[in-house]
Amino acid sequence: MASVPQTMKGVIIEKTGGTEVLQHKTDLPVPQPKDGEVLVKNDFVGVNFIDTYFRSGLYPAPSFPYVLGREAEGTIVKTGGAGDLYGLKEGDKVVWMNTGAYGEYTAVPAEKVVKVPDSLPPKVGAASLLQGLTALTLIREAHHVQKGDWVLVHAAAGGTGQWLCKLLKSVGANTIATASTPEKLELATKAGASHVINYSHEDVKAKVLELTGGKGVIAVFDGVGKSTFDLSLSCLARKGSMLSFGNASGAVEPFAISRLSAKNVRLMRPTLFNFIAERHEFESYTKELFDMIIKDNLEPSIHEVYPLSEVGRAQNDLEGRKTTGKLLLDPTK
Ligand code: NDP
After folding, report:
1. Any idea where the Enoyl reductase (ER) domain is (predicted)?
2. Roughly how many angstroms between the first and final C-alpha of the chain, as a whole number?
């Protein structure tokens, strides 16, 4: 095992704002794992929209300086002393989800870390963990999608959107996907959508009703938020589920719940972290996701591996709707 250095590359913010607040440092102290923690040398770090919410201040950072980033793939290089390590040991290839991922090393509570199956190629863990688990828990627990169900997925060429299309296809749903360009719609089709709509200029509601024989869809998976919320409600069938799981276009405005009575609609604002808060939930969903990836040969779509020093460009691309699939960071560069 290579020795662990004293300092490392990493990105911190000391205040909220645009991407100019992201500071790439080369001399951050390497964290020490406490009891029940493991120190992971990160090989690939996932970029997620949530990172931009903490950077901008839409979600409050607990304190400053703050290290963004919620997930990574790497190798355990050290373990804390006492505490349950869930069988993890030095040298294990792992993925993890917690906080403080934008760096070469992160000390992570062992309960937030799982081993990667040997057959999973490099990058696949980091490119599938947070967004793949989001998609899996959404279609299982937010609305349990059944074979033959008609569902609507917005921003379907994005990281989470493509995972939704892939997993919905594997359960046999009819997925209507939206995106803003023909190239993105093509990717949504490749990922498994059965019908696509360009929501930048087509009449989404009319097309959804036409495809579903006037009924509407039984569930809408809406990570776009503010700009699509009303549209999503209008596309739902009677007794449908409105799953509003993100704010890519801004936070949804407050609204009167009496609007749900028009079609007996269920409304949920789920976050992944509340579906997998217990260790057994995190472990079993991760195992199921990796098993599906291996069995169904589900390759994650990787937009680009950015050097960590160019994280500002990565976040600008993500917020500027220039990306498709997953954005990763190489923390060594
Ligand atoms: P994506 O890769 O999906 O990127 C966001 C996409 O949203 C864009 O590519 C764009 O696609 C679409 N979009 C529509 N309007 C806007 C806008 N005004 N500004 C920017 N993008 C817009 O990102 P992620 O997969 O990381 O996240 C997607 C959503 O899912 C986010 O809202 C995120 O917060 C949420 N999420 C929620 C989780 C949870 O636990 N609740 C977990 C993971 C993600 P197009 O050009 O086709 O419109």
Report:
1. 17-329
2. 21
Structure-block tokens of residue 271: 């976050």
Kindly state whether residues 118 and 140 are assigned to the same domain.
no
Q: What is the pLDDT of residue 1?
A: 56
Instruction: Tell whether 83 and 52 lie within a shared domain.
Output: yes
Rounded CA gap, 4 and 90, in Å? 12
* Residue 310, Cβ density class (10 Å: 0-12 exposed, 13-18 middle, ≥19 buried): middle
For residue 228, report the distance from its CA to the centre of ligand 1, in Å.
12
33 CA distance to ligand 1 middle (Å): 33
| In a shared domain, residues 13 and 117 | yes
ipTM exceeding cut-off 0.90 for this assembly: yes
Q: What average pLDDT does the structure give for the chain?
A: 97
Percentage of the chain lying above the pLDDT 90 cut: 97
Counting the structural domains of the chain, the total is 2
Which residues span the domain enclosing 39? Answer: 7-123+300-330
Mean pLDDT of 146-154: 98
Co-location of 57 and 166 in the same domain? no
Tens of pLDDT, residues 260-287: 999 999 999 999 999 999 999 999 999 9
* Residues with a CB atom less than 6 Å from ligand 1: 48-50, 131, 134, 155, 157-161, 179-180, 184, 223-224, 227, 245-249, 270-272, 318-319, 321, 323
pLDDT at 2 over 90: no
